[in-house]
């Protein structure tokens, strides 16, 4: 049985949701960033990390989601098998890893992005992060115009990938999701999903 190492409020919510959608047995282990337990399975001390029953370890959210989608084709979460459908799935996975997730770093950890320790400098970095996130959410919102899900046809692991980041934007952007009605609609669709609610409830447990 696979084990998912996750942290509350983190991007590990994406594979957590994907595992729940798949419906096969798995274990979810809550960890602290940089803890001994997490460092033992991921040298970066970061989540998500997936451990298979035979001890094989996989890190990186995009890789874990792709692995789970293809390990369980019966769940229909890969976004299609054609050459272009696979390329689209990789495209959007890279978008969330490299463009959206990375855009949040200056907001989460402004001190990493300036050697100036003043509050003014910290605030300037956070505001720059807001602009970066807004640019990416504009791209996502325009893509979602007229679509229910990010990839063609049906919900996929890429929707799961978007969910923690949409929640961060809702909480951290000065206007929340104002101005991104299609992203808001995707958020509401996913937030209303019983499997997503189950995972959020588990993550909220002490
Ligand atoms: N590139 C990695 C980034 C993983 C990552 O940074 N996860 C965050 C949570 S969203 C984390 O564990 N941060 C703690 C840390 O970096 O110390 C991935 O996509 O899986």
Automatic annotation (TrEMBL):
Catalytic activity, EC: 2.5.1.18
UniProt entry tagged with the keyword Cell wall biogenesis/degradation: no
UniProt enzyme class: transferase
Coiled coil location: none
Pfam family, one: GST_C
Keyword Mitochondrion recorded: no
Xref: CDD domains: GST_C_Beta, GST_N_Beta
InterPro entries: Glutathione-S-Trfase_C-like, Glutathione-S-Trfase_C_sf, Glutathione_S-Trfase, Glutathione_S-Trfase_N, GST_C, Thioredoxin-like_sf
Keyword terms of this UniProt record: Transferase
Every GST N-terminal domain range: 1-76
Record-annotated GST C-terminal domain positions: 82-206
Entry GO MF terms: glutathione transferase activity
Domain of life: Bacteria
The protein's name: Glutathione S-transferase
Protein species of origin: Pseudochelatococcus lubricantis
